[in-house]
């Protein structure tokens, strides 16, 4: 199983971008998104240093809610 982390593009320099999530910034390669290049402010899924897909802000928010739940060990309210 692979895990991709939603991050927001902060700065772009060619095929490299500075992306941020939860106060952490990382250098991310945009090489795999040549057909759909993101712009500053877009959200992307990042896997092992590569942006692999542009996603909506809502998708990023929903993903982080689920990741926070898993990482925090919280149980869903309906469980």
Walk me through this protein's architecture.
Helices cover 20% and strands 41% of the residues. It has one helix at residues 57-72, and strands at residues 5-13, 16-21, 24-29, 43-47, 50-55. The chain has one domain (5-72): SH3 type barrels (Roll), CATH 2.30.30. The chain is α+β, with helices and mostly antiparallel strands and 79 residues long.
What key phrases describe this protein's structure?
79 residues, alpha+beta, SH3 type barrels, 1 helix
Q: H/E element string?
A: EEEEEH
The second-level CATH architecture is: Roll
Count of runs of 4 or more consecutive helical residues = 1
Structural class: alpha+beta
Tally of DSSP β-strands: 5
Poorly predicted runs: none
Main sheet? 5 strands, antiparallel
Measured between the Cα atoms of the first and last residue, the distance is 24 Å
| CATH fold description | SH3 type barrels
| Largest sheet, spatial ordering of strands | 3-2-1-4-5
Give a quick rundown of the structure:
This protein is an alpha+beta fold. The protein has one helix and five strands, in the order E-E-E-E-E-H.
Describe how the helices and strands are arranged:
Elements: E1 5-13, E2 16-21, E3 24-29, E4 43-47, E5 50-55, H1 57-72
Antiparallel strand pairs: 1-2, 1-4, 2-3, 4-5
């Amino acid at each position: 199983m692979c895990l991709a982390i939603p991050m927001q593009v902060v700065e772009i320099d060619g095929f490299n971008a500075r992306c941020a999530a939860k106060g952490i910034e990382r250098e991310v390669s945009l090489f795999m998104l040549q057909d759909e290049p993101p712009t500053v402010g877009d959200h992307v899924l990042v896997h092992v240093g590569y942006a692999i897909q542009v996603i909506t802000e809502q998708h990023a928010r929903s993903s982080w809610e689920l990741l926070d739940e898993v990482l925090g060990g919280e149980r869903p309210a309906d469980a």
